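Thread: "does anyone have the structure for this chain?"

Original post by V.I.:
We have the sequence but no experimental structure in hand. Need at least a predicted one for the grant figures.
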Amino acid sequence: MTLTRSIALLWEIPLGLMSYGFSRVVRGTLTLISRYYNPTDTKVEADWQVVSADFLKSPLKLLWTMSRARWNLHSLIAIAGPFTVQSEITLDVRSLWQSAPTWTAVVYTLKGYKTLTSISSLTLPPDQNTATIALPPGRYLVGLRHYDWRNPVQLPAIAVDGTPALASDSRSAPPDFNQFYRGLAARRGLLFSALNFYVYPLLRWMQWLPRSFVKSTFLPVPNPETHFFYGALDRGEQLTIDLPADLLATHRLYFSLYSRDCFPYDWYPITQDHHTTAPMTEQGVYILRVHPKMPDMLGMAAPLVKFLRSSP
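Reply from O.Q.:
Generated one for you, C-alpha cells below.
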C-alpha cells in the first residue's frame, strides 16, 4: 500500500463509518414518512411507475432511490404496486415477452424492500400466457427489468388472489430511453455525498471485510439471476477486464461506472474478451453484471473474470 493510500485510510474509514450510519438513518426515515412505501396503508391504489426523468423529478424519490439501490442503467425498469396479497399474484407474461427478449419480474416485500422471489425469460417458456406466484399474506411490490426492450413497452396486467388488480399499460420507450440518467449528475450535492461516501472505501478495501456484508450493503436488491463483480477506481485509474473463453457466447455483460456519490457516470455492454476502460476523471465505483443467455446457465458458479486496476 502506498503512503498516499495509507494516509487516506486515516480519514476515509471514520468518515465512511459516519456516512454508513447516516445512510441507515436516511433509509429508515424514508420508510416511515413515505406514504407510498408505508406497509400499513392498505388504501393506496396500485399503479405502474416507470423509472424515468419524470419519476425521479421528485427530490424524495431520487433520495429514496439513491439510498436503496445501485442504478441498473442497462434495463428499462418499472415498478408495480403496492399489492395486498393473501395467497398469490398473477402476471400476464405475454406482455413481458412482447416488450423484451430478456426480462425479469421480481417480487419485493413492501416492508424493508427485500427480494422474495422472481420469474424471468429464463424460467418461463415464450408460449406461456400467465404466471402465478404463491406468496404468504402481506404487502408487495413487483419490479420489472426489460433488457433490449422494444418500443412501446407493454406493462403486464396483474391479478391478486384471482381478482384483477392492475391493468396492462403501454409506455413509449425508444432505444435511448435511459439517456435521462446522464442528466442526473446536475443534481449532485452534499446530501448525496454524505449518503454514499462510505461506498468507495467499502469497495476499495473490501478484501478486509466479510464478502456477504459487502454484497448486501452495496447491492441491497440485486437481480437473483445475475452474477455481480464490483470495485472502486481512483481518479486517473483505468480498469482492464479479461473474460474467460466463450463467456460472451453464454452470457450478456453489462458494465456500469458510477461517481463516488453513486450517480451514473457511464455504461455500456462488454462485447470483447479484453476491454480497458478510459481513465476515471474522478473517484468512482463500477459494477459488471453477467447475465445468462440460456436457462441451463442458471445456478452455475460465477465465471472467473479477471480485473486489473492501473494508471496509464
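V.I.: this helps a lot. Residues 3-33 form the longest helix (31 residues).
O.Q.: and The chain has a mean pLDDT of 91.
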